[in-house]
Design a protein that fits this description.
Bound molecules: ligand AR6
Distance between the termini: 15 Å
Number of helices: 5
Order of helices and strands: EEHHEEHEHEH
CATH architecture: 3-Layer(aba) Sandwich
Strand content: 15-25%
Structural class: alpha/beta
CATH superfamily: Leucine Aminopeptidase, subunit E, domain 1
CATH class: Alpha Beta
Strand order of the largest sheet: 1-6-5-2-4-3
Length: about 170
């Protein structure tokens, strides 16, 4: 499995699956979530409603993942995961790690060979970028995901790219 970091808008990625940093309600939001729904069109939201109907309380537990169509995106699937909100003094790294592990496993089950991740929780949810990158890289490297040949971190901004490039070099 090849793992790489690139600076890009994830909605333009030509991979089998892209991962959305969603929220438990699954009905869209700002940041990368808003960009994915805007670029992928209403089919994604329609399938999110279906996935939501199957979840207890209509909520996706943080650290879990569900898949929908990619709609108008080049990617065939969008995998929606809800990251933890960063809270100083509370260790929620296992939940952040789980977002990557569960998304990779789901992509593998679907038959994807390539997947792109954003920096989950490192925007609105406030996770410090360097630590977000370390958790992401170690989670991906430790996960057995049969069939996945390419994992690409698709990152907005130089700071995110630097953090993930460094984490890849050190992990
Ligand atoms: N391509 C790649 N990365 C992006 C893009 C893009 N098009 N747009 C933003 N990012 P965030 P979170 C980066 O806030 O912290 C939403 O409202 C961004 O610069 O999107 O997990 C959801 O509905 C940052 O580095 O996700 C949730 O309520 C990273 O993606 C909440 O925000 C993650 O930032 C989730 O917050």
């Amino acid at each position: 499995m090849h793992v790489e970091a690139v600076g890009t808008d994830i909605t333009t990625e030509r991979v089998d699956a892209i991962v959305n940093a969603a929220n438990p309600g699954l009905l869209g939001g700002g940041g990368v979530d808003g960009a994915i729904h805007a670029a992928g069109g209403p089919e994604i939201l329609a399938e999110c409603r279906q996935r939501k109907a199957d979840l207890p309380g209509g909520l996706l537990p943080r650290g879990q993942a569900v898949a929908t169509t990619g709609g108008r995106l080049a990617a065939r699937w969008v995998i929606h995961t809800a990251g933890p909100v960063y809270a100083p003094g509370k260790d929620r790294r296992a939940v952040l790690r789980s977002c990557y592990v569960q998304s990779l496993r789901l992509a593998s089950e679907l038959g994807a060979e390539s997947i792109a991740f954003p920096a989950i929780s490192a925007g609105v949810y406030g996770w410090p970028m360097d630590d977000a990158a370390r958790v992401a890289v170690s989670a991906v490297r430790d996960t057995d995901a049969p069939g996945i040949e390419l994992v690409r971190f698709a990152l907005f901004g130089q700071r995110a790219l630097n953090a993930f490039t460094q984490a890849l070099a050190n992990t």
